[in-house]
């Protein structure tokens, strides 16, 4: 991978990748330099996950080819272990695709090291048949738990230490597209049936519908739960430029609908430390940072013209992925076409 | 600047500030700061007094009609100073501390922030622009200050042009956010005008309609004309009159600050818009409407827009600024000042980020055109579909529906996805059941579904045969014991043997067998009937679709009814209604029973078991 500097905006740091990139994850380790895992997106069996570090001082990307590993089919999501041991030189990263896989990445520094597959978590009873995973989320409060969402309408909660399924729920009537943990035993999921549901593992029989898309059965494609303020969730719809902000205390009525994108929204991420900031990106090539209004007191209404974003960035091509680094909250990573850019907030 | 008595000192300070104010306004620059030599540390310059004449974001006014323009300016600078003091004191409880009229951090523009931060600066001998000016005792005119490296000028983000003049016992610094070329005459004017102006003055400029195409020294020279007369009349009750008088000044500043022709239209629109009044409240966003040319209801509008233009212009300059480690000093200052407030953090991030951030402040113009992308959310949809690439390989082992499934997948995500899903689920269920069946039926060796079913059927039949066999064996055992009791061993045996054999070989068709038995062996048959006759058993069984009707007449004995019902239950018949009567020790019984299971006992079987029960007499 070559490193090139963007001519358009000297404050966006660009890296060219030999193949299109979709999945992206920031390492949550505060001590080490910014480390990114990038999953390729090739519509075939052979895909890769590559690692890159970024030096904030010198703004230089340094690929780590020793840590790269092959991945069967493109990874639909990548995520590092949310609470790594600070001084450890190895990290755990999970990927979803046809199955949930855990990889151990040993970075010995200076680009050396290697990655190996730790486990494949497969719950399909028949070896011939698998339901691909659309997404997963690693529970920060209880890091043994990973929740996966699948097109077979189920959500599976894995206990990765035992390597076994903790529970599998039929979450929706249609394919589940995204899942996000709130607390240790509570997660939310969105589906093609257009609903956002919250599940509590203590009461698996019942789920709460927090929101349903107004035009029935408009699929909700992505969900993000604000980890710094658990009242708020954001979701995006299929073929829509709107971002729905939900307050879980008042279900069914969104707090706000953010409508300033000029084309469909593809991805979004809450700010890891600020309570109500959100960044979204879409097909218009824009990454917008919003400040979400606090849930309105009953009786007040939002301004009719809607909420405006605070900041914006233009990438010039459809942005497919956006991640806000939890360890280095000044940095947002975006992926478009074959490029990965790091933006400073 | 020392004066005996606090009051006099205060008054002198005030006057000094006014003089500063006048100077700055005279030249229409953005700010003036007087750095005085510290009394505590020799040769170190500290912020002593300042006047901020630049853009303001929000104006907090307690008495709307009473302030003159210069008073407002002074007050603003005072408010900024107060804010700085309170922030640097590191008070966490800021919200309740600030009275309504004073400023809170959100009210400030970026330039105001820089001005505020400047208050924190100190200059050692020869360091920084003021330090150098003092050391060399010469004035310094710095153009393009934003390009200056940090050693020369660290606060370069506030001003494009900075002038430092050693003055009295300190350094007078003036700055403007515009490019002004060096002009010795101007400097002389600064110093002279400082002394000339002894009373508050707001310069009145003639109202220019055409904007200034270039800012050059000629224009500045024009501006240096001082009108000594006070511009504003003493406060009147007529707010509108004052507003209109204020109007031109605002226009001036607007014209000066902008280089964009669109602003001209804006000011015209403003003129046409008519009156506006002072506004007590914070108004931040309305000016964005103003951009589109609509009415601007408040006088606080213009600075934000001007600021936006400024930001846009200066941002490009800022990007090219080469900041080394030292220059992050003010960023650090900001951080330390603002670190107490969480909300401010984001603000400060924007502010600090304002110099290096990849993001720009969003403007409504961005939404103007809708971008028609190719296929919307293309990659995202591919990711979520689970994709043909995955299932093409995965399904190789599945027996049925492979071709159908992969075709369905390739045809697209939207419509067929749910169809396929339910189909897939159904197949999965079926497969699971087949596997379960395989585990139950022990004899199954093969794995394909057809043979599983065949073998299961055979197994079930086998089981049924065995059940019958066991049941009839038990019955014959009873028969035997009865026959023995009646001292007819041979006949009983024969009967039992034949009966038993025939029962075993012929499953359900016992009624026929009975007849056969009758035909073949009349003795047995008679014997059989003799039994019936002896016991006066008369059974009639009628079967319909769902139920059976039994009519029974027989000798009554103890527990007979119970045993009859038990026998019926064993035949998987559920008695729905029972009518019974006993007369002359003859039990007349009518039972309606419905079938419990799908496999129904034949009338013959029912009769036979009833006879067995009754026959134990």
TrEMBL record, chain A:
Secretion signal span: none
Superkingdom in the source lineage: Eukaryota
Segments annotated as WD repeats: 169-209, 258-292
Keywords associated with the record: Acetylation, Repeat, WD repeat
UniProt keyword Repeat present: yes
Cross-referenced InterPro entries: DCAF7-like, WD40/YVTN_repeat-like_dom_sf, WD40_repeat_CS, WD40_repeat_dom_sf, WD40_rpt
Gene3D superfamilies on file: YVTN repeat-like/Quinoprotein amine dehydrogenase
Protein name: WD40 repeat protein
TrEMBL record, chain B:
Family the UniProt entry places it in: Belongs to the bHLH protein family.
Protein name: Basic helix-loop-helix (BHLH) DNA-binding superfamily protein
UniProt main location, coarse: nucleus
Record Pfam families: bHLH-MYC_N (PF14215), bHLH-TF_ACT-like_plant (PF22754), HLH (PF00010)
Chain ranges of the BHLH domain: 414-463
UniProt keywords, alphabetically: Activator, Coiled coil, DNA-binding, Nucleus, Transcription, Transcription regulation
CC annotations in GO: nucleus
Taxonomy of the source species: Eukaryota, Viridiplantae, Streptophyta, Embryophyta, Tracheophyta
Database matches in InterPro entries: bHLH-TF_ACT-like_plant, bHLH_dom, HLH_DNA-bd_sf, MYC/MYB_N
Keyword Metal-binding assigned: no
Gene3D superfamilies according to UniProt: Helix-loop-helix DNA-binding domain (4.10.280.10)
Protein source organism: Rhynchospora pubera
MF terms (GO), sorted A to Z: DNA binding; protein dimerization activity
């Amino acid at each position: 991978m070559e490193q090139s500097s963007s001519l358009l905006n000297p404050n966006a740091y660009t890296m060219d990748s030999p193949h299109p990139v979709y999945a992206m994850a920031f390492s949550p380790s505060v001590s080490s330099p910014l480390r990114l895992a990038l999953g390729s997106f090739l519509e075939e069996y052979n895909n890769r996950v590559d690692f890159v570090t970024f030096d904030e001082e010198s703004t230089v990307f340094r690929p780590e080819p020793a840590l790269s590993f092959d991945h069967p089919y493109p990874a639909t999501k990548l995520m590092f272990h949310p609470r790594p041991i600070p001084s450890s030189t190895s990290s755990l990263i999970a990927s979803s695709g046809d199955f949930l896989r855990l990889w151990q990445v040993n970075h010995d520094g200076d680009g050396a090291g290697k990655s190996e597959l730790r486990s494949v978590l497969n719950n399909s009873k028949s070896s011939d048949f698998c339901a691909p995973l659309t997404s997963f989320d690693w529970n920060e409060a209880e890091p043994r738990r990973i929740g996966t969402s699948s097109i077979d309408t189920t959500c599976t909660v894995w206990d990765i230490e035992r390597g076994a399924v903790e529970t599998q729920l039929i979450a929706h009537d249609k394919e589940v597209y995204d899942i996000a943990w709130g607390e240790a035993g509570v997660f939310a999921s969105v589906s093609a049936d257009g609903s956002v549901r919250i599940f509590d593992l203590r009461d698996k029989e019942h789920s709460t519908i927090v929101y349903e898309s107004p035009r029935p059965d408009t699929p909700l494609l992505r969900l993000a739960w604000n980890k710094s303020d658990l009242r708020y969730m954001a979701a995006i719809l299929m073929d829509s430029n709107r971002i729905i902000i939900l307050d879980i205390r008042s279900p069914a009525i969104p707090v706000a609908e953010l409508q300033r994108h000029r084309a469909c929204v593809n991805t979004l991420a809450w700010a890891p430390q600020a309570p109500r900031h959100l960044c979204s990106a879409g097909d218009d090539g824009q990454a917008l940072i919003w400040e979400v209004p606090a849930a309105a007191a009953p009786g007040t209404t939002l301004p009719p013209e809607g909420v405006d974003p605070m900041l914006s960035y233009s990438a010039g091509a459809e942005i497919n992925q956006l991640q806000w680094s939890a360890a280095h909250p000044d940095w947002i990573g975006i992926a478009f076409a074959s490029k990965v850019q790091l933006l400073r907030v | 600047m020392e004066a005996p008595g606090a009051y006099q000192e205060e008054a002198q300070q005030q006057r000094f500030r006014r003089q500063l104010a006048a100077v700055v306004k005279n030249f229409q620059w953005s700010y003036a700061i007087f750095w005085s030599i510290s009394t505590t540390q020799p040769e170190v310059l500290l912020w002593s007094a300042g006047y901020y004449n630049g853009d303001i974001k929000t104006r907090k006014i307690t008495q709307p009609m009473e302030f003159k323009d210069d008073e407002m300016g002074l007050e603003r600078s005072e408010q900024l100073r107060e804010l700085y003091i309170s922030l640097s004191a590191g008070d966490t409880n800021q919200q309740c501390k600030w009275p309504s009229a004073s400023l809170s951090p959100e009210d400030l523009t970026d330039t105001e922030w820089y001005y505020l931060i400047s208050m924190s600066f100190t200059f050692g001998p020869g360091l920084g622009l003021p330090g150098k000016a003092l050391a060399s005792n010469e004035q310094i005119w710095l153009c393009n200050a934003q390009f200056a490296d940090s050693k020369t000028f660290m606060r370069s983000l506030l001003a494009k042009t900075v002038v430092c003049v050693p003055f009295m016992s300190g350094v007078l610094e003036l700055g403007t956010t515009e490019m002004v070329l060096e002009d010795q005459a101007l400097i002389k004017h600064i110093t002279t005008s400082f002394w000339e102006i002894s009373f508050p003055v707001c310069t009145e400029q003639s109202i220019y309609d055409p904007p200034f195409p270039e800012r050059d020294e000629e224009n500045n020279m024009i501006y240096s004309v001082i009108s000594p007369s006070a511009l504003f009349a003493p406060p009147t009750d007529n707010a509108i009159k004052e507003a209109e008088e204020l109007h031109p000044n605002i226009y001036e500043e607007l014209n000066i600050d902008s280089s964009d022709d669109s602003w001209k239209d804006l000011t015209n629109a403003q003129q046409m818009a008519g009156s506006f009044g002072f506004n007590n409240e914070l108004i931040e966003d309305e000016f964005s409407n103003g951009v589109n040319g609509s009415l601007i209801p408040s006088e606080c509008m213009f600075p934000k827009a001007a600021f936006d233009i400024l930001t846009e212009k200066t941002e490009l300059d800022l990007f090219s600024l080469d900041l080394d480690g030292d220059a992050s000093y003010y960023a650090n200052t900001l951080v330390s000042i603002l670190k107490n407030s969480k909300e401010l953090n984001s603000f400060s991030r924007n502010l600090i980020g304002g110099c290096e951030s990849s993001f720009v402040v969003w403007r409504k113009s961005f939404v103007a055109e809708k971008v028609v992308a190719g296929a919307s959310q293309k990659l995202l949809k591919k990711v979520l579909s689970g994709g043909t690439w995955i299932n093409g390989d995965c399904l190789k082992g599945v027996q049925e529906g492979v071709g159908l499934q992969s075709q369905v997948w390739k045809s697209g995500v939207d419509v067929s996805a749910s169809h396929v899903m339910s189909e897939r689920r159904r197949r999965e269920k079926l497969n699971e059941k087949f596997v379960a069946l395989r585990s139950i039926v022990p004899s199954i060796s093969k794995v394909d579904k057809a043979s599983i079913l065949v073998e299961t059927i055979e197994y079930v039949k086998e089981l049924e045969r065995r059940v019958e066999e066991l049941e009839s064996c038990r019955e014959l055992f009873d028969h035997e014991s009865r026959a023995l009791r009646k001292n007819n061993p041979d006949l009983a045996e024969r009967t039992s043997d034949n009966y038993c054999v025939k029962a075993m070989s012929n499953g359900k068709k016992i009624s026929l067998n009975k007849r056969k038995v009758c035909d073949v062996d009349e003795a047995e048959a008679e014997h059989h009937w003799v039994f019936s006759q002896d016991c006066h058993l008369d059974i009639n069984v009628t079967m319909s679709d769902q139920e059976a009707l039994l009519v029974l007449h027989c000798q009554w004995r103890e527990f007979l009814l119970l045993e009859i019902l038990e026998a019926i239950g064993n035949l998987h018949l559920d008695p729905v209604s029972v009518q019974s009567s006993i007369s002359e020790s003859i039990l007349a019984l009518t039972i309606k029973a419905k079938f419990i299971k799908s496999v129904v006992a034949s009338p013959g079987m029912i009769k036979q078991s009833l006879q067995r029960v009754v026959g134990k007499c």
